């Protein structure tokens, strides 16, 4: 019988009959995705959910793009704040009356989620910038990166540090990275909560300013300085031996970093991270003091920060870097595959680093069958390659590794017996991926769901009977 995860995925199948959808929604843990994403929900079912005493189904329903404005008005007045929050985030559009109601919502969580939208009119953003709750203003600062200058100035000069820090940060929730007005740079540089965020924008970065920032007590400031291209060699050397491993990682990917310095940094990071990757981790943790443990964790974080880093200057001139001992350089070089000799591309396709292999595959339009099979077995994104032969897909569906089975579970050329087997897979993420496969025939969808509902109904009846006997 299909697992609950597979049934949840099947609830989204375009060939699922509406009457079976209602029955699926009655199963615990099944159907929330359908309420959120199906655009063909029966009107009677929508009304049932909106008026049901159980409030849980209404939260995914509020995410449904096909809801009418009248339904959204009902949700805007719903007593469950999570329903109103879901509406504030996911409604495709908010008419003026609905927007006004959500701006006045008594729950700051609802207003904070409203602040994350990218389609708010200027007057709504200006109002949220003056919201009485600093959490709401901070959300606006992090998400509304294209706010008008008067709103951005208001947030950058907010009396609450968390709001100023969110308005001038090293990370924002969506592009573009807002550039603070130049006349505010001195104040932002003097403010500890905004200093790291403004370092990226300082033009020019004077040598004495850079030296002071490189010695700042905040590692986020030193990380930002380490990424500035105009540093003198002595500062590069100093930051390469910073106590924060992520600062060292920033130096490693500098275009002007000497190769010997890169090797020194990479050796330091890999040695530190290795402490947390062995089989005897509990023993290692008991032996390390707090300081050494923090350094090891920092090295792990630094290597993670490099895992998907792409240097444009390497991609633009890839050949000198394809044999680099550092995966981050080979990965960037692999993305320039169109400019690389065939033999070089072949080496990158067999690289020991998974992300290097993926980058090389993505930049190579045609792969031979042997290379395709090797990549499918070693990488999780096999369903993205539509030319995978059915017999190879079937073999991968029986692989002992769950991640390999998941990778092929959504493949359009997966033979039906293999797909049906994956619907019962013991790994939940595999079964769910199989249930999403739109290659599953409509007749099979109906049969699988009908059988699962019959079995669940019989199990429920048996439990009720056993309960009655126990009570007797």
Q: How large is the radius of gyration? A: 28 Å
Give the overall average pLDDT: 89
Strands, total number: 0
Main β sheet profile: none
Please mark out the parts with pLDDT under 50 across 5 or more consecutive residues, or reply none: 380-384
Give the N-to-C terminal Cα separation: 32 Å
Helix fraction, binned, reads 55-70%
The backbone outline, from C-alpha atoms, is: globular
Give the structural class. mainly alpha
Beta-strand residue fraction: under 5%
Count of helix runs: 32
What keyword list fits this structure?
mainly alpha; globular; 472 residues
Could you characterize what this model shows?
The chain is mostly helical and 472 residues long. The chain is 60% helix and 0% strand. It has 32 helices and no strands. It has helices at residues 4-10, 18-25, 32-37, 43-51, 58-61, 69-76, 81-90, 96-103, 108-114, 122-128, 134-143, 149-156, 161-167, 185-190, 195-199, 207-214, 219-226, 233-239, 245-252, 259-274, 281-287, 290-306, 312-316, 327-334, 342-349, 354-362, 369-378, 390-397, 402-409, 416-423, 428-435, 442-471. α7 (81-90) packs parallel to α9 (108-114), α24 packs parallel to α26 (354-362) and α28 (390-397) packs antiparallel against α29 (402-409). It is globular and about 75 Å long.
